[in-house]
TrEMBL record, chain A:
GO terms for molecular function: oxidoreductase activity. PANTHER family: ALDEHYDE DEHYDROGENASE-RELATED. Transmembrane segments: none annotated. Residues 44-246 form the Aldehyde dehydrogenase domain. It comes from Actinoplanes italicus. InterPro entries: Ald_DH/histidinol_DH, Ald_DH_N, Aldehyde_DH_dom. Keywords: Oxidoreductase. This is Aldehyde dehydrogenase family protein.
UniProtKB/TrEMBL annotation, chain B:
GO terms for biological process: carbohydrate catabolic process; deoxyribonucleotide catabolic process. Belongs to the DeoC/FbaB aldolase family. DeoC type 2 subfamily. This is Deoxyribose-phosphate aldolase. It comes from the Bacteria. It comes from Actinoplanes italicus. It catalyses: 2-deoxy-D-ribose 5-phosphate = D-glyceraldehyde 3-phosphate + acetaldehyde. NCBIfam families: deoC.
TrEMBL record, chain C:
This is Aldehyde dehydrogenase (Acceptor). GO terms for molecular function: oxidoreductase activity, acting on the aldehyde or oxo group of donors, NAD or NADP as acceptor. It comes from Actinoplanes italicus. It comes from the Bacteria. Residues 35-473 form the Aldehyde dehydrogenase domain. The active site is at residue 255. PROSITE patterns: ALDEHYDE_DEHYDR_GLU. Belongs to the aldehyde dehydrogenase family. Keywords: Oxidoreductase. The keyword Ribonucleoprotein does not apply.
Length: 279, 309, 474
């Protein structure tokens, strides 16, 4: 793709200042510890290494308890803020080739999930009428740290990140389409999302994903963005080592459709509490 | 009930476990609500001067030297050299090795001299060592002793051990006032904080103090609230007024005023007195001085205008 | 004593006009017959503004506007309705200090409460129901639930803007349009809300605000083109509305009075229980339908608890609602003050022992000192009738069964409180209480995600939570 897409009509006589695309780990934008970059559409983009993946998991793990302990209302507010900031930065994504309708859908997707934060427990949990003098209630809880091998489009990216974090998980995202992904990271970084809740790595799936799939401190693995069947199977096998929850869509996903509850419930644990009743 | 020194372990245990529980959410909500009080103008000026008079100006570092301690004593006597109306602090708080230096520097000032003792901060030493530590500090001139309880023994349920230690240290203090540090950040629950408060008071503490300042969680408003409720109830039952000293983490005037509000609305003005309430703090003093200056000059002050020590 | 200097919240953040019209079809206009009423600041008796009184013709216009708007509003995709509600929520957040001051001026409640309780809950309520607008298929009321039409909503004066939020947010999220009548003594925040709707560019007619007194409310409730009636207020008026709606096929929800028991067992966390009792009855001057107005305390700790309670009550700060340190503000109206005085006098005449802390009250305005009655029995009128003021009746009990029996011995059934450190007791007692909301080791807690509403004569239907959608869905 020609560079001109990103640098529309510079003023004559003035050279535009380009953006450097770095990783997003723990709320900061570091370069890869490996010092490597790869070229995408003429930009040098950080090429994440296994150690970057390790650092990202550490950051996600460190952020997870506090994010999960935030009130559902608070998490909803943060997600809504992301929608506001994404809407405000439309031009940036348009310049990266994202269509108006996809942008709108991506903004609305954040709004949709923002609303789920304080409702998913009311739909996915509830009182259980056990036979005995017991109070018994089931409530969903986040599974923990989720590694996401993400699809390349903006809407695809939002559609895998939002359902994971809205319930209190934190994520390490391997992203294709690095410019869009890092621009989204910049939206997140300015949207009250605590550092470490979303960590974004750009690089090669085949190189980095296996390290995440086998990482013992990762609780779930979302393979939505893996197109290569063999790689997906290999990653699933690696995930089995620590019995990670794995999301592996069996058919191509239409990201414009109502996502339903599955993207959230697949990354939730159900906890049931019993308590006797009696004077 | 009265627990005498001869009371058995089971009496002490059943008494402490019979105290009303503390609901965490409720006590924290109450403390947070009181923290929204808005203290302005004339009340703020009074509160600042009172808070200065309640400061136990503290240095408890391995790197403390006679020079450092002398400088701190000078600051304690006259916190704001530019303003003679600024009151002195309540006390200096130092390690036993520094008591002699501090005693000389404070002579005739009316500023009390507190020393941590009893194998501060861990308390992990034989009783004899703790008592010697205490006697030495008193002999060197300390008129207040800040002891630590054996948290290990408390958490293991060996209340008798903790009780006896406090009794022994109190005796070793002679005429010096005894502050008992509960190290609330290590006790885990508000219920334990209430129990430890009562244990210390029953054993003869003159003050109960939250923290050493050396662990992750130091003084907080709800912890201090629970301790204030304990001294209030103890006074009602036994007629003796015990002081309270939150220590560690209180750095700003805003923080300090929240504590004064807490006292005012839970135990009342009898505790609004340096003999009954202290702040264990070091950096707090300069913020109090800055806010004090802001009130008198009408503009904001900067840290360069106040002495470092 | 550590005296707090006055710390008044600035009144300049709110700009009140001299007079207000009705908000119909997106525009403010005067009522057709030109009648007005005055709304006053109950803390000073100062007139704040003149308000139009909506007559039958005005109600016709408002309902017609809502009916016209219903077609397009209900046909909007839920996600689009959601975004309007999110906008409203955000604007309320951004204007919350202004609205809090306004609410305190018009209602008399302390700024600490309007700022820290009312306004945050108002915004949160709109956020919560905004999120439901595009998720109705997941709410458990069928795959494609439909709105009802025009909702006629009548709200009380105790939490003016919060009650508005409870009514309007679920109605709009589900695709209904509304005509809402605020209470005659507290109309201002609803009129400011009309301005919020305009700022949010909400389509005209989706929200209409009609002001007036009881007659205006009756016209609205009885209007034939209103499909759904929602009322919060007294049980007496609720009964009238239920009669007038009977046979019309209109859907009806009622959130009415209460006489909640706050039950304290001998193993309660005492200091927190005292806070809960104080919060239960003195929050919002006791103008709370779910107030814990009957304290049921286990006899074995009654004396100790009352000592603590009195000591705590002595620290309550009564006075200027705009002072940030005020705990108890003004009684909302002269009429309400008279009612509180009357029932309190009856309590004393019937032999209960009355106690209030030393408590200087301002000369102007409507004030009532926090009061407790001890030695109250089930036979006393102050144990049976809703006082709706800062007056607590104290009764004792011996066993859990007796506590439950006394708690349930009332035609009301809105809320109850339980204080004990024993979990199994909480759950067992909660099971037996005939009340719609049971708070354990806390009191007067509200959240948009949590349903609220009563048993028996405290009304029917639930507001808040997923359950709150049901009242607005076919």
């Amino acid at each position: 793709m020609p560079k001109s897409v990103k640098s529309p009509a510079p003023e004559p006589g003035r050279l535009t200042v380009r953006k450097t695309y770095k990783l997003y780990i723990g709320g900061k934008f570091p370069r890869s510890e490996s010092g490597r970059t790869f070229v995408v559409d003429g930009d040098n983009v950080s090429l994440a290494s296994r150690k970057d993946a390790r650092d990202a998991v550490l950051a996600a793990r460190a952020a997870q308890p506090k994010w999960a302990a935030a009130t559902a209302y608070n998490r909803g507010q943060v997600l809504y803020r992301i929608a506001e900031m994404l809407e405000a930065r439309r031009a940036e994504f348009t310049a990266l080739g994202v269509s108006d309708s996809e942008l709108s859908a991506a903004v609305d997707r954040w709004v949709w999930y923002a609303g789920w934060s304080d409702k998913i427990a009311q739909v996915a949990g509830g009182a259980n009428p056990v036979a005995g003098p017991f109070f018994n209630i089931s409530a969903p809880e986040p599974t923990g740290v989720v590694a996401v091998v993400a699809p390349g489009s903006l809407l695809g990216l939002v559609s895998v990140i939002a359902p994971a974090i809205v319930t209190g998980n934190t994520v390490v995202v391997l992203a294709a389409g690095p410019q869009i992904a890092i621009s989204l990271a910049e939206v997140l970084a300015t949207s009250d999302v605590p550092g470490g809740v979303v960590n974004l790595l750009t690089g090669r799936y085949a190189e980095t994903a296996p390290w995440l799939a086998a990482h013992d401190d990762v609780n779930a693995l979302d393979l939505t963005g893996v197109e290569h069947e063999e790689l997906a199977a290999e990653l699933e096998r690696a995930a089995a080592g620590s019995l990670k929850r794995v999301i592996r869509p069996q058919a191509a996903i239409d990201f414009t459709a109502d996502p339903g509850l599955r993207p959230m419930t697949a990354l939730l644990e159900t906890k049931t509490v019993w308590h006797p009743k009696g004077y | 009930m009265t627990v005498t020194a001869s009371a058995g372990l089971s009496d002490l245990r059943s008494f402490l476990h019979g105290l009303p529980g503390v609901d965490k959410v409720g006590v924290e909500a109450r403390a947070a609500a009181l923290a929204t009080r808005s203290i302005k103008t004339s009340s703020k000026a009074k509160a600042i001067d009172l808070a200065i008079r309640m400061v136990d100006l503290t240095t408890l570092e391995g790197a403390d030297t006679p020079g450092k301690v002398r400088a701190l004593c000078a600051k304690a006597r006259r916190p704001d050299p530019a303003d003679a109306s600024c009151p002195p602090v309540a006390a200096i708080c130092v390690y036993p090795a520094m008591v002699k230096v501090a005693a000389e520097a404070l002579a005739g000032s009316g500023v009390h001299l507190a020393s941590v003792a009893t194998a501060f901060p861990s308390g992990q030493a034989p009783l004899e060592v703790k008592l010697a530590d205490t006697r030495d500090a008193v002999a060197a001139g300390a008129d207040e002793i800040d002891m630590v309880i054996s948290r290990g023994a408390f958490l293991a349920g060996d209340y008798r051990h903790v009780f006896d230690e406090i009794v022994a240290v109190k005796e070793a203090c002679g005429g010096a006032h005894l502050k008992v540090i509960l190290e609330t950040g290590e006790l885990g629950t508000y219920d334990n904080i209430r129990r430890a408060s009562w244990l210390a008071m029953l054993a003869g503490a003159d003050f109960i103090k939250t923290s050493t300042g050396k662990v992750a969680v130091n003084a907080t408003l709800p912890i201090t609230l629970v301790m204030l409720e304990a001294v209030r109830d103890f006074r009602e039952r036994h007629g003796r007024i015990i002081g309270v000293k939150p220590a560690g983490g209180i750095k700003t005037t805003k923080d300090a005023i929240k504590y004064l509000v807490l006292i005012n609305e839970t135990v009342g003005d009898e505790w609004l007195d340096p003999d009954r309430f202290r702040f264990g703090a070091s950096s707090l003093l300069n913020d109090l001085l800055m806010q004090r200056t802001k009130l008198t000059t009408g503009h904001y002050a900067g840290p360069d205008y106040f002495t470092l020590d | 004593m550590f005296e707090y200097a006055p710390a008044p919240e600035s009144r300049s953040v709110v700009d009140i006009a001299g007079s207000y019209g009705l908000f119909i079809d997106g525009e403010f206009d005067g009522g057709k017959d030109g009648n007005v009423l005055k709304t006053v600041n109950p803390a000073t008796e100062e007139v704040l503004a003149e308000i139009s009184v909506a007559g039958p013709e005005d109600i016709d216009r408002a309902v017609a506007a809502a009916r016209r708007a219903f077609g397009t509003w209900s046909a909007l995709p839920g996600a689009e309705r959601a975004k309007y509600l999110f906008r409203i929520a955000r604007i309320i957040q951004e204007r919350s200090r202004e609205l809090a001051v306004l609410e305190s001026l018009d209602n008399g409640k302390p700024i600490r409460e309007s700022r820290d309780v009312d306004l945050p809950l108002v915004a949160a309520h709109f956020f919560y129901y905004a999120g439901w607008a595009d998720k109705l298929a997941y709410a458990g009321f069928g795959p494609d639930p439909k709105p009802l039409g025009v909702a006629g909503q009548v709200i009380p004066w105790n939490f003016p803007l919060l009650m508005l939020a409870w009514k309007i947010a679920p109605a709009l999220a589900t695709g209904n349009t509304v005509v809402l009548k605020p209470a005659e003594t507290t109309p201002l925040s609803a009129l400011f809300f009309a301005d919020v709707c305009r700022q949010a560019e909400l389509p005209p007619g989706v929200v209409n605000i009609v002001t007036g007194a009881g007659d205006t409310g009756a016209y609205l409730v009885e209007h034939p083109d209103v499909s759904k009636v929602a009322f919060t207020g007294s049980t007496e008026v609720g009964r009238e509305i239920a009669r007038s709606v009977a046979g019309t096929g209109k859907r009806l929800t009622l959130e009415l009075g209460g006489k909640a028991a706050n039950i304290v067992f001998d193993d309660a966390p005492i200091d927190q229980a005292v806070e809960g009792i104080v919060n239960g009855i003195f929050f919002n001057q006791g103008h709370v339908c779910c107030a814990g107005s009957r304290l049921l305390v286990q006899e074995s700790i009654a004396e100790e608890l009352l000592t603590s309670l009195k000591r705590r009550m002595a620290t309550l700060r009564v006075g200027d609602p705009l002072d940030k340190n005020t705990d108890i503000g003004a009684i909302n109206s002269a009429a309400q003050l008279a009612r509180i005085k009357e029932l309190s006098d009856i309590g004393a005449a019937e032999g209960a022992e009355r106690w209030s802390p030393e408590c200087p009250l301002p000369d102007r305005g409507f004030w009532f000192a926090p009061t407790i009655f001890t030695g109250v029995t089930q036979a006393h009128r102050i144990a049976r009738e809703e006082i709706f003021g800062p007056v607590l009746s104290v009764l004792t009990f011996r066993t859990p069964d007796e506590a439950v029996a006394k708690a349930n011995n009332t035609p009301y059934g809105l809320s109850a409180g339980i204080w004990t450190e024993k979990g199994s007791r909480i759950l067992a007692v909660a099971d037996k209480l005939r009340a719609g909301v049971v708070w354990a080791n806390t009191f007067n807690k509200f959240d948009p995600a949590s349903p609220f509403g009563g048993y028996k004569e405290s009304g029917y239907g639930r507001e808040g939570g997923r359950h709150g959608l049901e009242a607005y869905l076919a």
